[in-house]
Fold this sequence. Notes:
Helices cover 57% and strands 3% of the residues.
Amino acid sequence: xxxxxxxxxxxxxxxxxxxxxxxxxxxxxxxxxxxxxxxxxxxxxxxxxxxxxxxxxxxxxxxxxxxxxxxxxxxxxxxxxxxxxxxxxxxxxxxxxxxxxxxxxxxxxxxxxxxxxxxxxxxxxxxxxxxxxxxxxxxxx
Length: 141
């Protein structure tokens, strides 16, 4: 393991980016936007339920125009997870199927991404035996 701290200086970079002052912040935003476009991503991909990546949920509370949601945005925490791209693509497909079933079978028309991901993590936490089996199968491949 390297001796130097690979996260050294990250707080300064975040502070400069967050205040939006100075050319460094503007340059950083511009290069991020360019890399997102080049990578086929939009800034909307980084947001969940239309909130900005900074966590601003001003237009979103515990309800949407189609009705209430399970919990408010303020009840959430943002965490990074590391997953293979094919696994995430399958999860996005599952999200679309779940949304369609909620709409057609239960007349729920306002599934938010935070509700979906919260349900995914809750299901995983509830069935650790299946998680163990899945990990073992993945390692056998």
